[in-house]
Each structure stands twice: as structure tokens, then as C-alpha cells.
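Take a minute with the sequence and C-alpha cells given here and flag any C-alpha cell that looks odd. Thanks in advance.
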Amino acid sequence: MSQNSMILKKKQFFKHNEDIIRITTYVILLFSFILFVLGETVPFGSWRFYATILCLTGILLINFFEDVVVQYFSEESNGLLFHIGVSMVLTLLAAGFGKFYNLIFIIFMIAAQSFITLKPRVAALATSIFIGIFMVIMGLIGIGIEGLINIGITLVVGMVFVVTLSLVLKQYAAQTERAEKLAMELQAANQELVEARQREKELAVAEERVRLARDIHDGLGHHLTALNIQLQVVEKMLYKKPDQAFQAVQVCRQEAKAALEEVRHSVAVMRRSPLDGRTLQEALHQLVQEFRESSGKSVNLDIQADIPDLDANTAATIFRAVQEGLTNIRKHAVDAQLISILLACQTNLLTLSIQDDGKSAADDQVSSSFGLAGLMERAEQLGGRLTSQNLAEGGFCLTLEVPITGETV
């Protein structure tokens, strides 16, 4: 049985007990009516008789309309105290007017209501005063010492049972309320957990989309850019220099093949690292050599000897940065003749700089580069930063700084 269903059954059970208490109250009052009429403690038709009947009727009505009476008070505790107080006063008046000592059952009923609805100290004080006044009234209407002792013993024994039962029911009600509150909080927490998981899934999907877009741009974009440039070369030299055009076609085939591999890797999602099992130095040398062959430009690659082994994410970011830098040079620095790439390490900080001597690219072209935006995200994820600037002497410089984590590939 689930926790929610158990709490629901407890709630229904306690509500059933409340109904039983209400019905018992009405039965006790009706029984008291009958005892008073049959007992003939005062003459039938006298003002004492009608006054007693009126008081008992008042007790019945204030119990019947208890919820309505309590609503007229700003605080529920004040309304309940008023209800108990009026019931006690009417009971004492009925005892005095009717010379009626068989109101003990009503006293037990009011005591039970007091300990269930009021604070224990308030209920104990009110009940003690109530019983004390009742005993005084019993003495005034002619009950002897022996009779008062019997009534007192009956009240003491009955009150022990009534108070114990009332406190148990009150404690049970409090536990049920706490259980209901905890169940509601648990349900709310479960709902928040479900929503958090959904948001986590959506975030994971979004991150994966960004990663795929970044990889497609860094890998496929690089090869397609090279392919486009080589096709332009073929178009210009097809008739004038067929041999060079043929060589360009061969490069196009290599770039198209490499682009196809990038597409296959991206679609497979769990694509291998762009290093493909090679060291970073080997991958960078191959990338630069391919760029030299396809562009005809001079590239100076300087990798300092103190570069430590890098973790997979850092190594991949360095490779992608060089790839993006060369791709941007193809696009925006066609007249560049010398390209310098420096990878150095200083005090646990890895620095990569890519510089060319071509005509400086426009600022809007640099800021709108999707590849540079992707590299900035990669750098931030690694705790580093990416900067780019046009050089005063001409050319463009891309700088990536990444802290070294100390993990090996």
C-alpha cells in the first residue's frame, strides 16, 4: 500500500470518528432531556422546568451550529473557546434551574470537547472551574455530603478516561495532519524532481545540439572551405594550367573525402576525438601540412618542448582552435603569406597564438564568426579564454589561454 493511500485512509478514519463524536453528543443531550423530564426534579410547567429545557436546547443548538459560530471569529481558537464557554454556562444554569445532577454525561462531553479543541492548559483550567462550580451548585440544590462524594468520585474516574481518550484523539489528529503535510510536500518535491529531470534532458539535448553544430562547423566547415577554394583554383586554371588544375582536383577529392568522414562522425554522435588516437603534436603537424598543400601558404608551427600531456578536452580544443584559425585565414586573409602558430606553456597556463600578415578582417566579420563563438564556449568550459584582435602592423591574431589540469590524454 502506498504512503498516499495510507494517509487517505487515516484521514477518512479520523473524519469518521469526528462524525461519531458529533452523533454521540446529540445522543447524550437527547438522553439528558429524557432523564430530566422523567426525573421530575422540578414541577412540570414551572418556570424552572422551561428554563432548564431552554438551557439544554441551547446546548444542543450551539453544538449543532458549531462550525457556523466559529466562523464569526477572526481566530478559530477564540471561536472554539466561546463555544466551550457557552456550553459550560448553559450546563451550569440547567443544573441550577432544574436541580438536575444527572448532567454528568454532558460534563464529560464538554470536557472531551475542551481537551480536543483547546490547548491542554486552557482546557484543564476551564474544566476544573466548570466542575468546581457544578459541585457548588449541587450542594446548593440540596445534595448531601455522601451524594457529593459519589458525584465527585464519578467525575474523577470519568474525567481520567475522558481526558486520556481526548488527548489520544488530539495527538492522532496532529499526526495525521503532519502526515498529510509531509505527503503534500513529498508530492511537490516529486513534481519538482520530474520537472528538473525534464529540464535536465532539455538542457542535455540543447548542449548536444550545440556540440554537434560546433563540431560540424569546426570539422566539416574547414574541409568545405578548402574545397571551395580549390574549386575556384580549378575554375581559373582549367584551360591555362591543366596540370595545376588536376592537382587542385586531387586536393578537392581529399577534402571531400575528409568532409564525408566528418559528416559520418557527427551523425554517429559518439564521434571519436578529432585527434583520432594521435598526439596533439602529430595532429597539428598533419593539419598544418594539409593546409600548406591546399593553400600554398607558408605556415610556421612552433610547439615548445615543455608542453605536458593534456586531457582529451583540452587537446581537442587546441586542435579545433588551430583548425578554426586556419579556416578564418582562408576566408578573410587571402593575401596572407606568412602564418605563425605558437603553442607554449607558462606557469600551468597553456597559450596558443595564431597570427597572419594578411589584410585585417573587419570587426563585424570577426564578431559574427560562429566558429569563434564556439571556441569561446569551449575555452570558458575549460576555465580559459579566447581573444582576437587586428594587429596595428597589419594582420590578425587569435589567442587561446587554457589552464592545465594535469590530466593526461
